Task: structure prediction
Amino acid sequence: MKTILIVVIIIMLFSIVGCQQVNDEIGSDASNNTGNGISVEANEEMNDVDIEYIFPHEGVEHEGTWLQWPHNNTYDGTLECYEPIWIEMTRGLVKGENVHLIVYDEESKERVKRVLEQEDIDMRKVDFYVFPTDDVWIRDNGPIFVYDKDGNLLIENWQFNGWGSKAPYEKDNMIPKLISEATGIEYVDIDMVMEGGALETDGNGTMISTLSCVNNDNRTKNFTLDEIEIYLTKYYGVTNFIWLEGVAGMDITDNHIDGMIKFLDDKTIIADSEFDLSPAEMKGWKDAKTLLNAKNVDGEPYEFIFLPSTKKEVVQVEGEWIKGSYMNFYVGNKVVLVPNYDDENDKVANGILQELYKDKEIIGIDVRDLFADGGMIHCVTQQQPISLND
Result:
């Protein structure tokens, strides 16, 4: 029954989104490519762009979740710091879906298998793929699973260049093709650098992202923003673009969106409490104004729910102690994995999310070691939706 419902939704999305190549309410900021809706310059070209693939919302039923298991082959000490997080993610996810673990080599495979068995994790839902990797951030370097017009599941192989050549990436850039070869899921090569964590979509044609990352010369030097939007329409099914300026150089990602907001659905946005501002307070912050005035494909303003930051500073980054964010959570079939920090606001954030995801178990995972290196749970997970045609 769920599969039939998803098929109906995909068909509706192709018809609804396909008819909405131009947003009815482009808005005064659109000509500058920073507001709600696609740019005026892009509209003529967009009329000729067919949506070939739909990237489903994270909340759609998963076949499984992909993780790249940490190792010490690139950075010393990574395994010891990160492995407890990966154990708890696996423990939670197997409650409702398969977990596909990418391990560096055969020796790693046998070791990780022993570790998980010692942790009494249900290994019937765990399988292993031996692919060498540079790092763990599969949200950015991994496969993007999409449906085509016939409901076939495919892998999109966007290019990954280590967030603008800031980190090793050659092994990670091979992961989508390797997964395709191992699983038999057909892949589509795309000649553009794009990271999964740079884009947040509502599953109904709207995307929020930051120009500081997506329209940065260290990724897309040879593409105009209009051309980037055309690619995202064709390969993600996006027609309604909400562009935040972001802050280039703020972190290794140049300000990924998945650390700031998440679509609960196509009517509601969950956002970091830094955006919980009055009209007067947002006057000097263009990104806040753009986000809080955003509209969906139907021209309706989004409702907002805000998550707090931690009460105290929880990790030290380049000599500065900073607070933790709860935004980078991951929605599985039966669980929601939430960054926690041994902070009193862990309970507050977990409680808010429990109210939003009443049918799922909220699992808080201490991510301080991961957060100190610039990421959290969403950054290291990648969902594979169910096949509709099996």
Observations:
- The longest strand covers residues 309-317.
- The two ends are 14 Å apart (CA to CA).
